[in-house]
Specification:
- The chain has about 350 residues and is α/β, with parallel strands linked by helices.
- The protein folds into two domains: about 160 residues, NAD(P)-binding Rossmann-like Domain (Rossmann fold); about 180 residues, Dihydrodipicolinate Reductase, domain 2, CATH 3.30.360.10.
- The protein has 13 helices and 14 strands.
- Strands 3-2-1-4-5-6 form a six-stranded parallel sheet, with helices on both faces. A six-stranded mixed sheet has the order 10-7-11-14-13-12. It has a two-stranded antiparallel sheet with strand order 8-9.
- Helix 1 crosses helix 13 and helix 7 packs parallel to helix 9.
- The longest helix has 17 residues.
- It starts with a strand and ends in a 5-residue tail after the last helix.
- The protein binds NADP nicotinamide-adenine-dinucleotide phosphate.
- NADP nicotinamide-adenine-dinucleotide phosphate (NAP) binds next to helix 1 and helix 4.
- NADP nicotinamide-adenine-dinucleotide phosphate binds next to helix 1 and helix 4.
């Protein structure tokens, strides 16, 4: 029998991505959907404007939307995609009531006792959960995934961490789907680039230091590297493209960096998790790849693609990387986190 799961904020854009990503999942089945009191009491199909390709999945369409409040019918495992203005309160209420909340919202990402996971890079940060339970007196827990642009950067930097990352300069070209629906006005983005995404640069800088930090047993010691991010919204649909320059204290050669990328495997690969890409960081040799339209959907949208590795005249090396923002940067990331938590016995 599959593990029942609920989705908080199921009617929104990320909620819909969760529903789509979980169709035919081998372990999890969506049995409960929650949203605001504007939607509660309605059938999912009546409460939701389905914005993804195809129609609302039949097994979800006739579920009745619940309020985002703990109740006896809510499953233990809850994915959270609620609006950030209400996520803090809602996620804490569910964790207090004993639920495992796997959140996509930004609200708890930087809390010292909350894991901010990219399972290939920092699966051991799950070690924060016993501390979180103790600190907060919760019988449940909250675990989070990063911002959609941070995922691409940290997956690409994962193989390079062994060389001693000391400085990173990053410029993003972020797809419109990252702004949700309706997102950026068409008059602003068609044939244009908007060189500002509120709060994004700070998130990218801080989350990267936490994700690439070391779990010491009692806390995460942040990566001692300077990270400078410039974030831009561009008129691509899906897939955040990121240009990265990095300084590495051990001064590896190009071949050593490529070997580290090619051999990179994390816990999701070792444990053969259902949503894990077989090769998490894939190097593309063609000089004009990766590209959002051509590459973001490969590997079910769950891999990070890297290309154009070359010497940087300012730092040491520079390259381009890409990840699918609504899959690897949102719903797929949270599902992979929950799969890791299952095999670690954290859903029992
Ligand atoms: P959205 O489309 O506006 O959906 C928000 C969801 O939250 C809806 O289900 C909405 O329910 C629900 N909600 C709103 N107010 C509520 C309340 N008072 N109580 C309970 N539920 C409430 O937003 P989104 O783009 O999916 O983003 C959801 C979260 O994911 C946000 O925290 C966002 O920062 C984060 N995120 C988004 C993206 C992205 O690509 N869009 C990427 C990464 C992270 P109703 O339909 O009933 O209003």
């Amino acid at each position: 029998m599959k593990i029942p799961v609920g989705i908080l904020g199921a009617t929104g854009m990320v909620g819909q991505h969760f529903i789509k990503f979980l169709i035919d999942h081998p372990w999890f089945e969506v049995t409960w959907v929650g949203a605001s009191d504007r939607s509660a009491g309605k059938l999912y199909k009546d409460a939701t404007s389905w914005r993804l390709d195809g129609v609302t999945p039949a097994n979800i369409a006739n579920l009745t939307v619940d309020e985002c409040k703990p109740s006896p019918t809510a499953p233990k495992l809850m994915f959270s995609a609620t609006d950030a203005s209400v996520a803090t309160e809602i996620e804490r209420a569910f964790a207090t009531a004993g639920h495992v909340v796997v959140s996509n919202s930004r609200n708890h990402r930087m809390d010292a006792d909350v894991p901010l996971l990219v399972p290939e890079v920092n699966a051991d940060h799950l070690g924060l959960l016993p501390l979180q339970r103790k600190n907060r007196g919760w019988s449940g827990v909250i675990a989070t995934n990063p911002n959609c642009s941070t995922v691409a950067l940290t997956m690409a930097l994962g193989p390079l961490k062994q060389f001693g990352i000391t400085r990173v300069i990053v410029t993003t070209m972020q797809a419109v789907s990252g702004a949700g629906y309706p997102g950026v006005a068409s008059m602003d983005i068609l044939g244009n680039v908007v060189p500002y995404i509120g709060g994004e640069e700070e998130k990218m800088q801080q989350e990267t230091q936490k994700i690439l930090g070391d779990f010491t047993g009692g806390e995460v010691k942040f990566l001692d590297a300077k990270v400078s991010a410039s974030c831009n919204r561009v008129p691509s649909v899906d897939g955040h493209l990121v240009s990265v320059s990095v300084e590495l204290s051990q001064k590896p050669s190009r071949d050593e960096i490529l070997a580290a990328i090619h051999s990179y495997q994390g816990e999701p690969q070792k444990k053969n998790l259902p949503s894990a890409p077989k090769v998490p960081v894939q190097y593309m040799d063609a000089p004009d790849r990766p590209q959002p339209r051509r590459d973001a959907e490969r590997e079910n949208g769950m891999a990070c693609f890297v290309g154009r590795l070359r010497e940087c005249p300012v730092l040491d090396w520079k390259f381009t990387c890409l990840a699918h923002n609504t899959i690897r940067g949102a719903a797929g990331a949270a599902v992979l986190n929950a799969e890791l938590m299952k095999v670690e016995g954290l859903l029992d």
